[in-house]
Amino acid sequence: MYDRKPIGTSLALRWVLFLLLLTVAMGWAVRSVLARATMMKTADTPAQALSASEPGTRIRVVVSIDQVVGGNLKATALERVSAALYRRPRAGGVVSAVLTPETSVVMGKTQDIVPGAIVQLAGTLDSNHTLRTSKVVILTGYVHVADDSK
After folding, report:
1. How many Cα atoms within 13 Å fall on the side-chain side of residue 74?
2. CB under 8 A, 24+ apart: contacts of 106-112
3. What is the pTM of this model?
4. Are 76 and 95 contacting, i.e. CB atoms less than 8 angstroms apart?
């Protein structure tokens, strides 16, 4: 009497399309997260490399902030022991940095840039050997500084 399509075929096609779209969306999300995680690897720049670098050199360095005055930072470069463990260098390692209006802050807020914070600074050395930062990654709580006093 009535010309009806089988209900099962239409419903199965909808489920297949839904699962296909879901798979594509999940693949895109995983790729995006992995790409960002790769970009966020912490720097492994030794303190000696900082003092030997020429003006105009792009630098990424993990530091412990010692002093913050406005947009000016004084910090100590840290040496990597493992992925989540750093230590203070035996000598040197003092870093002067300037936050610019273009500086982006990742994994935190500007208010997290305080004495004692562990951050990764990325930027360019100027003629005064001051790092003009373009990016600050807040690492406090993600990495630790080894206590070498023992």
Report:
1. 4
2. 106/40, 106/135, 106/136, 106/137, 106/138, 107/40, 107/137, 107/138, 107/139, 107/142, 108/137, 108/138, 108/140, 109/138, 112/138, 112/140
3. 0.68
4. yes
Sign of CA dihedral 129, 92, 84, 145: negative
Residues in the chain: 150
Distance CA 67, CA 70 (A): 10
* Burial of residue 86 (number of CB atoms within 10 Å: 0-12, 13-18, 19+): buried
The pLDDT tens digits along the chain (150 residues) read 555 656 566 888 888 899 999 999 999 988 887 776 655 555 666 666 666 778 888 888 899 999 999 889 999 989 888 878 888 887 778 889 999 889 998 888 889 999 999 999 999 988 888 899 999 999 988 888 887 654
